[in-house]
Amino acid sequence: MSQHEVTLLLGSNLGNPKKNVEEALCRIEKEIGTIIKQSEMLFTDPVEFVSNNIFCNIAIVIKTQFSPIKLLNSVKVIERDMGRVDDTMILGEYEDRIIDVDIVRFNALQFFCEELIIPHQKHLHQRDFSKKLLDAL
Question: What is the mean pLDDT of the chain?
């Protein structure tokens, strides 16, 4: 099977955000694919909602054999296992979260379905913290 190069953005602002991100990175490496690039962690205020909890964010590039949907399902399992209950796509709004894993790029693929849009336009073009992390890769 072919290896796909995928860019992911991870964030957490509940509990111990740095530890949550580190745990998610370990799970991704163990269950999804090899991390080949990693930005520094960046601590930021929430974007698009109000909270007193600061986010710990990181961007990574992985190599995986997973398809986009299998990858999405796998990161959702990690999020749920770590304690994330609600998904932004279902809620229709942003809120504090123990972990969030977004698929930003998947090779040069353009992919559109109800659950997933690649590339992730907000991270690539609208969110300054995301652009800073992605530029560091």
Answer: 88
Locate 38 and state its tokens: 């990693």
Q: What one-character DSSP code corresponds to residue 52?
A: S
- Cα-to-chain-centroid distance, residue 94: 14
Give alpha helix (H) positions in 11-136: 17-31, 68-81, 88-91, 121, 128-135
Residue with tokens 């990181």: 58
The answer to whether the CB of 62 falls within 8 A of the CB of 28 is yes
pTM of the model: 0.89
Distances from the Cα of 89 to the Cαs of 36, 76, 95, 102, 133, in angstroms?
Answer: 28, 12, 11, 12, 23
Count CB neighbours of 34 within 10 A: 11
- β-strands 111-112, 117-118 pairing: antiparallel
